[in-house]
Amino acid sequence: MNTFGHHLRLTTFGESHGPAIGGILDGMPSRIRISVEAVQERLDRRRPGNAKGTSARRETDKIRILSGLSFDGLTLGSPIGFIIENNDARPGDYERYADKFRPNHADFTYQAKYGIREAAGGGRASARETANWVAAGALAGHLTDLCGVCVKAWISGVGPWKAEDLYSGESDPERIQAVIAEAGERGDSVGGLVSCRISGVPAGLGDPVFGKLHSRLAAAMMSINAAKSFEYGLGRKASEAYGSEMADIFVPDACRPGRIGTLTNFSGGIQGGISNGNDICLAVAFKPTPTIMMPQATVDIHGQECMLQPAGRHDVCVAMRAVPVVEAMATLVIADALIASQAQSHTLWR
Question: What is the pTM of this model?
Fold first, then answer.
C-alpha cells in the first residue's frame, strides 16, 4: 500500500537512492492559504546531517510543489503534487549488500514477497520515504492550524534514560546526546521513545467501531520506519491499575463555560474511539537503527553463511529524526478526521 488516509489521502512514490521521491495529497479543502516556507521548515527538521549521531547523508530536501495551489498560494481543491529530489544518493555504497540479507532490515521480507528488491538504501523501505510524509503533514497542518489544533512531539527516552512522565514535555538533551555519543563511539546504535501531545482537538472525532481515532493513530505511527510499539493515555500502565484509580471524572469545564471536562486525562483524550476534547497523548517506541558499525553474521540469497562488514551513512538513533515524522502522521490523521467531521456536521475552518 502506497496510499494513506480516507478523506485526506496521501500517495507517495520514489526510492531512497533514486532520482527523487514525492507524493500527491488529495482531498485538501479549497481556499486554504499554504506557506511553502513553513513546509520547508518542517522538512529541514527531519533532513539528515542536522545533529550529531544522525546520518551523514547531505540532502537539501527542497520541496517543489507541482500542482494544487493557485499562483498566490491558495489550495484549489485539486490534488497537491510535490517532488523532493535526491541530491546525495550513492547507490554504489550498497553493492556489497546486493546478495546479502542485512539483519533486522526489510531485505529478506521484500525478497520473499516480490522476488526482487532494491538493495540501495532499502528502496521504499528506507526512512528516506518519511520526507514525503513530513511534507504532506506540513501541508495538512495549515488545515489543523485553522481549527486550533496543535501537534507537538519530543524525545522522551533514549536507551536507559526515560522521562518519568511521558507526557509532561520533559526531556534531557545533554543526557540524550551523551547516550547517543557513547553508542556511536562503539559503532553501535540505540533505541528511543517519542512522545506527542495533540491539543485543541474538538470532542467527537473518530468513528466506531473499526474507525476508532486511536486505531487510526496507531496505524499511522506503526507505519513509521523502526516503530515497535504505540500507546496512548495510560498505555501499558492501565494493565496494572484498578478501575477506581483511572476513572476520568466528568466536571463542568472551568475554562470553557457550558462545556464538560474531566479532572484527569488517563484516557489520553480518546474514549470509545472518539475524541473527548482533552489533549490526545501518545508515545511511540523506536528500535535501534539496524545498521551498526560492527561486523554481523548473516546469510546470502543462496542461504550460505557470510559476514557483513560495516559501511555507509546511518543514524545512531533513528528516534531523533522521527520527531517531525510523528508530528506529521498525527497531523494527517487529525486533519482527515476533521474533514470527515465537517462533512457530517458543521464547517470547522471556514
Answer: 0.92
